[in-house]
Amino acid sequence: MKITKVEPILVDRYLFVQVHTDEGLVGLGESGAWGFHESAAAAVTKFGEYLVGEDPLRIEHHWQYLYRAFHFRGADIMGALSAIDIALWDLAGQYRDAAVHALLGGAVRERARVYQHVVGTTRQELVDGVKAAKEQGFTAVGHLTPFLDEDRSLPYFSTHAAKIGRAIEAVGAYRDAVGDDVDLCIEIHRRLTPAEAVQLGVGIAEFRPQFLEDPVTPDNFDEMEYVASRVDVPIATGERLTSIWEFAMLLRRSAVQFVRPNVGMVGGITGAKKIAALAEAQHVGVVPHNPLSPVLTAASLQIAAAIPNFALLEYPGRTWHSLLADRPDGAEIVTGQPEYDGHGFLLVDASPGIGVKLRADVTERVPYVPRPVKARLSVDGSVIDQ
Ligand SMILES: [Mg+2]
Q1: pTM for the full predicted model
Q2: Which range of residues forms the domain containing residue 86?
Q3: Are residues 56 and 139 in the same domain?
């Protein structure tokens, strides 16, 4: 079998890659570098110059060749490499009539626990979202901020006392809304300094969140370690990282209790499996970062099915960045989506490859929506993280 074409495909807010072969099989993957789809698509096309004519089943070899051909990596290049890697695993599964998890050692679980996204621009919307998730059977909610998911065009201001105080109150309100039936995955979205993050983490510990995600900007692992060592809430981080070496440095510092590799960013299924093994050696759980399309959900589910230290899978549904625009349903984009069991789990099935296929006319029906360059400003005009 030989590769005949490597094709980047932009749909809605997603970058997919299809790898075509001379045997008629087509592998499907997705990039996780959602801010830079245009540059990742260009990298996919460049990588395709090497891949056309190659045997798609030499996945590790092609991964090493593409990773080591040049000096330069980063999110968009790794998004491209990851999407290609997922597509090659999808092809390998189809070729051998086996699910990808069967090629990774076989399923260690029949279903994978998921957390539902909850978003809102008011406290009430967030509390209602937590309750609605419970009614739909979910046993965990995430993307859940103790602040608000406000429009980035609104200038930001809060006193320190109000910022920390209201955030602690909010987490208490989420816990009151659902009791202990639903785990709270609290997402800080990088808004705090290390000292602020410790104050908040100490304040919300009594509400027993499953984890505190990205309490500080994840650029400095020593600062993540500072927070992790002072707060009795597990820390989750890793969605911006792109390599096993970065995760190794984070783990060596005990700066993380739940790693969040994005299968579309860390070198695909090849990279995610290795990161999971590093985490396993330190009894750290894996919560794949998965805010994008059903293609990435399907790829992440293969990892969840095959590793012993899987903890939770992000399950965005239609909510991701839905505050400003309605989103197409996953079924408008792909066939063969993993099935939700109604009780907080996605079912692991034996469909060959990753199990999903792009609908044939998807690029005409669901056009690409480029993301604008937009950061939030403080009332004083300076840029803040949100
Ligand atoms: Mg996050």
Answers
A1: 0.97
A2: 3-101
A3: no
